[in-house]
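We were asked to recover a plausible sequence for a given structure. The inputs and outputs are reproduced exactly as logged, with field labels preserved.

PROBLEM: sequence recovery
POSITIONS: 84
GIVEN STRUCTURE:
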């Protein structure tokens, strides 16, 4: 039972670390690359072409791209019966 809790914590920690890395990469991109156009989250929401805008765009994009499949895996695995 405790290994299952550890597994959940590991996956959530890894998810948070990947989202943070994407935010840092977006910030660094906005800082050191010139001539960038404004990114649009989900092709709808424009973000300013600043380091903070790129950091938010990167973090939100990775959070969505990784979060939706992760949520589906959690949902499906919760419905599985371990006894069978």
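RECOVERED SEQUENCE:
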């Amino acid at each position: 039972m405790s290994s299952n809790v550890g597994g959940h914590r590991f996956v959530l920690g890894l998810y948070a670390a990947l989202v943070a890395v994407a935010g840092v990469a977006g910030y660094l991109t906005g800082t050191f690359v010139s001539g960038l156009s404004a990114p649009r989250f989900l092709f709808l929401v424009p973000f300013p072409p600043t380091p903070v805008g790129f950091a938010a765009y990167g973090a939100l994009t990775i959070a969505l791209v990784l979060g939706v499949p992760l949520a589906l895996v959690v949902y499906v695995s919760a419905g599985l019966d371990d006894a069978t």
